[in-house]
Amino acid sequence: MEQGKNSDRYVVVIDQDKIEPELARETVINYDPLNRAGKEGGFYIDENEELHIDEEDVMEAHKMAINKYPYEGAIKMIQLPAEEGEKVHQFHDNSFRLYGLPAPDEGSVVGIIGENGTGKSVALKILAGDIKPNLGDWENPPEWEEIQERYRGTDLQNHFKKLAEEDVEAAFKPQKVEDIPKAYTGKVRELLEGVAERKNVEEVAEQLDIEKLLDREVDVLSGGELQRVAIASTVLKEADIYMIDEPSSFLDVKQRLNMGEEIRKLGEEKPVLAVEHDLATLDLISDRINIFFGDPGNYGMVSNALSSKDGVNRYLEGYLPSDNIRIRSDEIKFDRTKRSQVENKPVVAEFPKFTKDFGEGEFKLETEPGKIHDEEIMAIFGENGLGKTVFAKMLAGAIESDEGDSPDISISYKPQYLDTSDAKVEDAISEVANPNGRKFETRIAEPLELEPLYEQKLSELSGGELQRVGVAICLAKDADLYLLDEPSAYLDVESRVELGKTLKRFARKTEKPLMVIDHDLLLLDYIADRGMVFKGEPGEEGVSTEPKKIGEAMNEFLKEVEITFRKDPETGRPRANKPDSQKDQSQRSKDEYYEQ
Q1: Could you give the domains of the chain?
Q2: Which of 11, 134, 271, 497 has the fewest CB neighbours in a 10 Å radius?
Q3: Which PROSITE patterns match (predicted)?
Q4: C-alpha to C-alpha distances, 436 to 432, 439, 466, 531, nearest whole angstrom
Q5: Which of 218, 238, 239 minimizes the C-alpha distance to 228?
């Protein structure tokens, strides 16, 4: 059902644990107005005995059917915000519209959070001067005088005055750092010295731990190394405003804190706008936060500025009290109590002690043996360069180990970096599964929102879209164990939450185990039953622990990298403590690096 501008839009949220299929058939499905009229699009029970309705078919009349279901809170119908406000920009008729902008602030970092497709990149380009705002009139765009008049008396008035005078120099840290070698060839030192204007290359290289990379060629760097080089390149430039797009992708926790400190220093001198989906990093680097929301790909709106803590918490809650707007159908919570007792489940595979020595002066790895059980999700985490991916490849038989044989099971592996081609998404999926199969649709395609991508080529996808396709292809294969390397890279918060739900649901429904390598501690905290921690000297030597309960593994890892995390009392999310703060010192004294 198409929703017009300013029409009522609703979504339905269903708690499947509270749904009794037969009762749902007698009440919700029986009284559904579309079902009663013999039309398509009403509530239905799928082959997994779960209740569903497609979002585009929800209408106000469904309230009556929902009210027939007797269990309170099992089915919620929520009205979403209508498109409204003064337009900042519209590209052409029936195209994306942006309402509102974050205001750059001298000497502070403005954090930006929101679903992909709600205008974050458009806003940055407008503030950088790459796009002149047309105030919604794409046919007869206004002159700068009219634009400045529109924003008279606001924090943006002076910024638009400078843009009109072409007096704004912007520095961008791009999102897709893996494209850097396509644009630049040569050594890292040459790249950085070519842009260094405000700081010394060695000083920034030490802060971001890239001294050892300075004499290496750019085209041999890993994703995490390219990310740090891109951040260094950006903060070294002399500019009036800095745009930092997703600086945490591919970085481990320690690197994220180092990066965050460098961005904070930059923010003390110049206006910085940072788009970030890792909530712990966003919380750490931001002085205030603007939330982007709306209908991805169609329109985006921007919240009032909020404090760092309130910005993240209101975003998770899905409600903006200052704007009196609900931006999401349900609240995002980090419930740590629903862990599966996997140790009581049958063992799917035992893996031995692995060793691998790549030669004198090269990397060597030694991992502890372990077991993985039915429906278990095991987190694999540690600093970059400690052999997590090497372990995954030895487990999958893609790398031959010096000691230890891969278990005799089939493993479906999603690599860290995904290959792109001109193949269509639907064709790529068809090689491993039927895209129209009901199980694939309900378990994988619908939660990962794949159908709109089917006709696109892999090479045309954004980083987050390609990531979702990679996860889908991995889960679609018939295997004994599923191994996913950094599945959260480039995903926005909603997509990460949906990814977490998808992985948990997949493990429980199929009773198949998953191993997940990732640096997003909130995601790992949310999905994992147990974890393995990798320690050692990055790039030189790595060792792993045996599998442990996730809380114990988190605590050991954070102690290894000397960071403490507290539990936010409002949302339950883990938050990084400021070093040497009272809370940091208190937790260290109790050996509680991960507050549970």
Answers
A1: 9-80 (3.30.70), 87-168+240-326 (3.40.50.300), 342-549 (3.40.50.300), 564-596 (no CATH)
A2: 11
A3: ABC_TRANSPORTER_1 (PS00211), ABC_TRANSPORTER_2 (PS50893)
A4: 12, 9, 20, 35
A5: 218
